[in-house]
């Protein structure tokens, strides 16, 4: 595998009871790449993201982040393995549909929590970095507000700053705008576009076609637990070979 691979998943399987949700999924994301995952509801997109950062452990397969591999097919014990899983979680930050901010903390406290308690950075340095990141997502003036006093778009931008504060290898976005009113979506999409312009590696589950066309280097289409196709956005949106993709895009537009 070449050096510039940020994250590599091989042969991922995941089932919930009798339901096989991922059926041998392979995905490689290179550093600086923006990969958009699309597909019908229930096709396994969220489960794939959660497996990539080991929030869910796959039943089989392996995840490699920056050359370090967790094998999910073998034995699951051991302190070394637990440490590796923790490390991969830190390096693959997740931004959720429902923001998942700590409600009792201010915007800044949400951003510096991980750097202080997980990365063990000195508080003063974490605050300096946190303030810079809030400025980067246009929220310097909301530094001391609690989530309840922020709009959905502002909450999601805090969540993006919080993800960045972990200095992850890759950020995984799970439908980051689907809980937002249309007028608030643009500000979050713009924040993500800015990250792309700065070379951040990202995997984004989204139904936002215009955004995907603009920001994606590659579009991955999932259906029934499989990756059915991977294409450049220009081919994916204009001339998809697969009839499943054609009908999906027709429904979405
Ligand atoms: P998508 O993101 O494409 O909508 P998901 O990955 O959320 O799909 O879900 C795929 C399937 O797995 C769905 O049928 C869903 O109900 C099921 N599923 C997801 N998470 C769980 C869980 N924790 N327990 C049981 N079933 C789940």
TrEMBL record:
Database matches in InterPro entries: AAA+_ATPase, ABC_ATPase_HisP-typ, ABC_transporter-like_ATP-bd, ABC_transporter-like_CS, MetN_ABC_transporter-like, P-loop_NTPase
Pfam families on file: ABC_tran
SMART domains tied to this protein: AAA
Membrane topology: Peripheral membrane protein
GO cellular component: plasma membrane
Subcellular location(s) per record: Cell membrane
Protein name as catalogued: ABC-type polar-amino-acid transporter
Organism in which the protein naturally occurs: Planotetraspora thailandica
């Amino acid at each position: 595998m070449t050096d510039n691979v940020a994250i590599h998943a091989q042969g991922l399987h995941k089932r919930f009871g009798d339901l096989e949700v991922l059926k041998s999924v392979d995905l490689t994301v290179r550093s600086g790449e923006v990969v958009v995952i699309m597909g019908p509801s229930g096709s396994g997109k969220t489960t794939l993201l959660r497996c990539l950062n080991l929030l869910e452990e796959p039943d089989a397969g392996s995840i490699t982040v920056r050359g370090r591999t967790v094998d999910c097919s073998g034995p699951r014990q051991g302190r070394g393995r637990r440490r590796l899983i923790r490390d991969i979680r830190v390096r693959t930050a997740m931004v959720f549909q429902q923001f998942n901010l700590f409600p009792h903390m201010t915007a800044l406290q949400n951003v510096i929590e991980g750097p202080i308690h997980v990365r063990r950075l000195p508080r003063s340095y974490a605050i300096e970095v946190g303030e810079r990141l809030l400025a980067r997502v246009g929220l310097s003036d909301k530094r001391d507000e609690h989530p309840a006093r922020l709009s959905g778009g502002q909450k999601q931008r805090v969540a993006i700053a919080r993800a960045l504060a972990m200095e992850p290898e890759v950020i995984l976005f799970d439908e980051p705008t689907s809980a937002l009113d249309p007028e608030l979506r643009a500000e979050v999409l713009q924040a993500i576009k800015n990250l792309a312009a700065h070379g951040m590696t990202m995997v984004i589950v989204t139904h936002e076609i215009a955004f995907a066309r603009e920001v994606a280097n590659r579009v991955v289409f999932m259906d029934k637990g499989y990756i059915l196709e991977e294409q450049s956005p220009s081919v994916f949106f204009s001339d998809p070979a697969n009839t499943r993709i054609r009908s999906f895009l027709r429904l979405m537009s």
